[in-house]
Predict the 3D structure of the following.
Amino acid sequence: MLHSALLIWQAIVIAIICSTGLTAYEKRLTYPPIMAIICKAGIANGKGGFSVQDIVVNEPKEDEVLVKIKAAGLCHTDHDSLSWGKQLIIGHEGAGIVVSVGKNISSVLPGDKVILNWAMHCGKCFQCLEGNLHLCEVASPVAAGGNGYTPGHASLDGTTLNGDPILRSFNIGTIAGYTLVKESAVVKNTSETMSFPAASIISCGVMTGYGSVVNAARLKAGSSAVVLGTGGVGLNVMQGAKIAGAGMIIAIDINPTRLEMAVKFGATHTVLATKDDIGLLKAAEEVKKLTGGRGADYAFECTAIPELGAAPLAMVRNAGTAIQVSGIEQEITIDMRLFEWDKIYINPLYGKCRPQIDFPDIVQHYTSGHLLLEEMITRTYSINELDKAFDDMLKGRNAKGVIVFD
């Protein structure tokens, strides 16, 4: 009798998700799962290399969600993760379909389309109560874990490689056919038209750029903004500035092709930088010419080049705000005179992400036609082309590359 009831329940769940693209084999594992799932994943060896191997993903525990990954964005942080000194599943941007949920999960159901995030949060610590969910002192993989394991990570024994538990990058490890995550790592995607590759890049690249403008800088309508570096994050800074109502958006890059793309994403002016412009001081003079000799109200550094860490300070007016978006995590020297006078320098994490608030807002901006996503994706790759995807990214061939799964 119990077995018959189980089969009936599984049939109901399969009917719910029949339009999501899961295979018949995957559908019978939805709820409750009968066996573990074997899938391919990108595995960092901790020493700068990686491989594509089979992992085993088990059923979710009571506070976990099993997601079939449909697309995973690729960024420079993923390449950095290859050298973090530990074996892990690569990837921190992703979108997919919920396959199964633990009994305590209430925000998503099997069949829901979701966008993943790495701003796991407990909701109870000092930073969470201050509204800084991305800085959670308990669950954040960065603020609490130093890019390592935290309670925001789903059970370690839930995913194994060659029989041994394996970590997931940023607690989510999205470059894999499936991932097991905590509930706070998923946000339901209500868009009827957004593709999975487009949804996947919201996870970090879009959120970081958009959030650095809207949440960190709190850019005022009518103000001027400079964006140093027009890669994936820089393009989303420009989109955030446009949405916030900036009156002037100045894009600076050494690549003229990227500057052409910048105009499509909101730049009103462009400045072509040169290799001999140390610290972009010449470019800063061009910015001042465009802003009545004063300097911009805001300047966003999006290059991740250590030598340019102080460059946004040279671009902004007195009492202006410089935002270090790209995450330069090393010692640099800054001429303190660049802070004169009353300038503010912010180094936000993850665009101060509040996933359950910001992701729906971003989806709404996309739906209303105010934010571009598909246009940012230069190329998609299969997981077996991960080496090519990394090479294209490192050589600047892509605005954004995305790994797609069947």
